[in-house]
Amino acid sequence: MDTGGEPDPAAVGEILRARYRRRMPERLEELAGPTVGTVALPLHVAWSGRTSFALEGPRSRMGLYRTVLAEGQRDDLIAFLDHRLLVEQWPVLRKLISRHIREVWEEAFPELAGTIATDG
What is the pTM of this model? Predict the structure, then answer.
């Protein structure tokens, strides 16, 4: 019987990875979000903090991608992320997201893991 002790970190990690896997597109090319302009995220994605992101600003764009990867559902990923920008930003972005998100995306899309070598 569980007496309220600490949850098993491995079990929690697998639950999180499964959650992120369910949200992912089948192919990176499905990510057809905007590449210019300003993106205003809906409250179910950006429920706390910043909700509007200018794609021309690298820090702002990175914030958008980080938020959508962490909180977005499949339709949000497709609507707000662009596959080319994701690949381009991945060497830095992968350091700003959770280990669980990073692992799931790099396992599903080897082209993302391949960008790590270009990170200088």
Answer: 0.85
